[in-house]
Design a protein that fits this description.
2 helices, 5-stranded antiparallel sheet, mainly beta, elongated, about 10% helix, about 130 residues
Length: about 130
């Protein structure tokens, strides 16, 4: 899924766990993953690395068909700005990218000038 998550997708989030220092990241990608458990570190099967994940509250129910919980996962791919500052996302950002400083439980992250243009561009535009 993309950054177009809604609050209804996240209604059972209790906490967001970060695995890296957010001050060093202009953006993170967010997606809903299906996991077996609601309150442990989820498995990660993408390229790149997981930088955070959501824990669900005790009222969260698994999908009746699959038995899996939908949980938000935050990640970065090898070609993202943090790893390749002069690469594809030197300017701009992937569609599912949001500023990690805007992420709180139960609310989708927000795109900001920093997430879309980078901290260098934001610093250059400051008075």
């Amino acid at each position: 899924m993309s950054s177009l998550l809604t609050e209804s997708d996240l209604i059972h989030e209790a906490e967001v766990v970060w695995l890296e220092n957010l001050e060093e990241l202009d953006y993170v990608r967010q997606a809903l993953d299906k996991t077996r458990r609601r309150n442990t570190k989820p498995p990660y099967a993408r390229d790149g690395r997981m930088v955070g994940y959501a824990l669900l509250d005790e009222n969260a129910s698994p999908d009746p068909d699959s038995g899996l919980y939908k949980r938000r996962v935050f990640f970065l791919l090898p070609h993202d700005r943090d790893s390749l500052p002069d690469g594809l996302y030197r300017e701009g950002a992937p569609g599912e990218a949001v500023d990690p400083r805007t992420i709180v439980p139960k609310q989708p992250g927000v795109k900001t000038p920093r997430s879309q243009s980078g901290s260098v561009a934001v610093a250059a535009s400051a008075p």
